[in-house]
């Protein structure tokens, strides 16, 4: 019987045994959703970097540069983390260098894991089907907001837990996440409208991004970290 844990914030990763676990990085609004969408739309790879300055180093090397801070595109970069920037005509055959407020930080802090994959509502069933075939412990890492808990990432973690077929020993955070998901499941959009990050994005005029990120099972691809970049998992 494996263990499944939820890390409610990147600030808590040091409390988890990531070296012997599969880590699923979650940043629903919007980084992990955009990563999944970009890989599904033919991006050769996505290189997550922690800092804007690191992203800038890749300029003039043929990469698309994506940088987001506080929900907005950083000046001087091609785009941010809106999923509508990761459409096929823009990213197919390209490598993207990406830095975001929360999601890329969570990936960097998870790098020592046995395996790092990226989850979103867009690839929920594909992700859970793959996880159900694995034998290792699983840690669902919520990117949160600037090291704080957030609602949407935790609800997604609960959705994953609820769909896993194998019996897993759950920590208290996993039990709480599943309970939140079951509360939200009948009207996910309405439930997550109350989240703080949803309010931030609405203030920026990107309600369409929120709606897009809450679509379920429109993708089959799963991004996996190989070396310094996310690529499509072969399964």
From TrEMBL:
It comes from Olivibacter ginsenosidimutans. It comes from the Bacteria. Its cofactor is Mg(2+). Pfam families: 2-ph_phosp. Its EC number is 3.1.3.71. It is an enzyme of class 3 (hydrolase). Keywords: Hydrolase, Magnesium. It catalyses: (2R)-O-phospho-3-sulfolactate + H2O = (2R)-3-sulfolactate + phosphate. The lineage of its organism: Bacteria, Pseudomonadati, Bacteroidota, Sphingobacteriia, Sphingobacteriales. Belongs to the ComB family. This is Probable 2-phosphosulfolactate phosphatase. InterPro entries: ComB-like, ComB-like_sf.
